[in-house]
Write a structure and sequence with these properties.
Strand order of the largest sheet of chain B: 4-5-12-7-9-8
CATH topology of the domain at 6-96 and 163-227 in chain A: Rossmann fold
Low-confidence stretches of chain B: none
Number of strands of chain B: 16
Number of helices of chain B: 13
Largest sheet of chain B: 6 strands, mixed, barrel
Number of helices of chain A: 7
Strand order of the largest sheet of chain A: 6-7-8-3-9-10
CATH class of the domain at 6-96 and 163-227 in chain A: Alpha Beta
Shape of chain B: elongated
Oligomer: heterodimer
Mean pLDDT of chain A: 86
CATH architecture of the domain at 6-96 and 163-227 in chain A: 3-Layer(aba) Sandwich
Number of strands of chain A: 10
Distance between the termini of chain A: 43 Å
Mean pLDDT of chain B: 85
Radius of gyration of chain B: 32 Å
Number of domains of chain B: 2
Order of helices and strands of chain A: EEEHEEHEHHHEHEHEE
Structural class of chain B: alpha+beta
Largest sheet of chain A: 6 strands, mixed
Chain lengths: 261, 416
Amino acid sequence: MSTPLIKLENATRLYRMGDTEVRALDGADLTVQEGEMTAIMGPSGSGKSSMMNILACLDRPTSGRYLLNGEDVSSLSDDRLAEIRNLYVGFVFQSYNLLPRLRAVENVELPMVYGRDTRQRRAAALAALDRVGLAHRANHRPAELSGGEQQRVGIARALVKKPRLILADEPTGNLDSRSSEAIIATLQSLNRDDGITIMLVTHELDVAAAAKRIVAMRDGRVVNDERITQRIVRPVVPASQPLAASPASLPGLRSQVEGAQ
Amino acid sequence: MSPLMTFGTALSSIGLNKLRAGLTLLGVVIGVSSVIALMSIGRGAQQQVTERIQGLGTDLLFVRPGATQQGGIFQALGSAATLTLSDAAALADPVYTPSVLRTAPQTQVGLQAAAQGKNAFTQALGVTTEYMEVRNLKLKYGRNISPADVQNRKEFVVLGSRISETLFGVRDPVGESVRLRGRKFMVIGVLQSRGGTAFGNEDDQVLVPITTAYYRLSGSRTSQGDVTVQTINVQAASGASLDSATAEISILLRVRHRIEPDAADDFTVTSQQETVATLNETTNTFVVFLGSIAGISLLVGGIGIMNIMLVSVTERTREIGIRRAVGAKRRDVLSQFLLEATLLSVGGGLLGLASGWGLSVLINGKNLGNQTFRTTISGDVMALALIVSAAIGLFFGIYPALRASRMDPIVALRHE
C-alpha cells in the first residue's frame, strides 16, 4: 500500500485552563488514504475539532505524531505549517469565515495572496467559483449571498489552490437541508471527480452517509471506524426522515436526523 | 505576500472606518503641522537676527572691556571700565591701525523718555558722529549728531522711529524737546525704521552725543578723568582685513593700557561673524525648544495610532484567524498591521506638512504684540517631520502588530 495521506499516531492534545488540564485528544489513531471521503462523528467534547485542527496543520499534537503524506509535521515551524496549509490543505468552516468587505472572488483569491502564485490569481479564483456553481455571484459581497452560497464560496476558497486535502468542520451546520444537500453534493463531486481527499465533521447522519467511511470519536479517541461499501448514495434518504439503516449503534451518535432549521 | 498586495490590503482596511482613521490621522496632522509651524517661526527669527547683524556689514569688529576680577573671580565680560573715548580715537589713527577704517564708541543707559505728557522706556546710546555710518543707519528727518555736538556736550537727541511715533505721532518732531533724566533734550533728527528682532528693537533707541550721555545721563569716570565707553564699534577697511585689524587693535590697546607682556588683555575683540555664531547657538536652542514642544503633540498623535491599532487588532481577530488558516505567516500579519500604522502616520505626516506649510505662510509677516513674525520653511525641518512621523507609526504600530501576529489561529478563528 502506498504512503497514506494522513497518519495520526497516538496523538494527544492537552489544553491548560488555569489549574485544570483538558485532554482534548487522548491517543487518537487515524489513517486515511488519498482519495477517501471520511466523515467524523461524535458528541461535543469528543475531540473532533481538536483532531481537525491538527489535521489542518493549524495546531500541533502535544505528543504523538502526525504524518502528512509521510512527512512528520508535528514538529515543524510555524512558518512551515503556514506554507503547508497554504499549499496542501483547504479548510471549510461551519460559519463560512469569509471576509465581509471582500467580494466573493476576492475571498476565493485569499489563499493565493499568501502563496507564490501572483499571476492567474483572478482566473483561478473564477474557475473555483465556477466549479461550485457560483461564477455569476463573483462580484457580490458575503452579506449579499445566502448561507448556502457563502458556504460554496468557502469551498471555492478551499479548493482554489488545488489542495490534496479538504477539511470541513460541520460545513452544513448552519444550513437548511436543501443547501446542505448542495454542499454535500459539491464535496462528493470534488472527491469523486477531482480525487481530493475529504474529511468532514458532522452531527447529521445523512451528511455522514454521503462519505465512504465514518469515524466515530469519543473522549479524544477513535472508537469506531466503518467503511460504507454499498450503502446509501445520496440523496436516497430524504433529510426529514429518520435514518433507519444508519449506523445508529455507534456510541454517542444521535439517532435522529435533525430536520431543516 | 507581495508588498503591493500588503499595501492594498492595508489601505482598504484603513478605508473601512474612515471617521476613525480620520481622527487618528488628525492627531498626527496636528503634531506635524505644529512642529513645522513652530520651527518655521524659530528659524524665521533666527534668520532675521542673522540678517540684521550681517546687514550691518561683514567688516565690523567690536571692542569691549575685559572682565573685572574680584577676589580671583571673573565678572561678566564688559564689566570693567577700561575703554575710553581716547582709545576709540587712537584706534582710528591710520598710523597705528592701517586696517581700521573708522571707529564708533558707544555707551548705553536705560531711561525714561518723556514728551508732551507721554513717556516711554528707552535705551539712550551715547555715540559719536561715526556711529550712524558704522551701523549703517539712515535719517528720516533732521540731522546726525555732529562732532561739535560731542565736543560741546550738547543736549541733542536723535530718535528711533518707533519712539518718535510713541512720543510725537507721525509728524516730524525736529525742534521739539524730550526729557531724559529730567533734562530737556532737543530733537535734531529721527532715524529710519529698521524693524525689530526677537532680541530687541533698534527703533526703540535714541542717540545722544557720547559726552552728554557720560556727563549728564550716567556718571562713572576713569582715574584719568577720561570718558569711558562700553563698546567701540570698529569698521575694518574691508572684510578681508578683519584679522590684521584685530591684531593691530590688540597691540595698540595693550600698549595704551600698559599691559605687561605676560598679562592677559583687559579687553576683547569680537567680529561680526563671531557674534552671529554665538547668537545662532542661542537661537538654535530656541528653535529646538519650540520643536520639542511641538514634538510632544506628535508623540500624543503616535499614542493615538497605537490605541486605534490595538482596537483594530481586537476587532479583526477573526480576520487574522482566517488569513492564518489559509496560509498567512506571522510576518504577513505583522507587516500588514505595521504598514497600516505607518500609512496612518505618514498620511498624517503629509497632511501635517501641507497644513504646517500653510500655517507658516499665513503667519509670515503678521504682527503679534510688537513682534513681526517671520517664518522660514526649510527642507530639513519638513524632511525631519516626515521621517519622525513615519518612525512614530512604526514605533507605536509594532506592539499592536506583534499582538496580531502572535495570535493562535485557532483561538482567533473562534473569536466572536
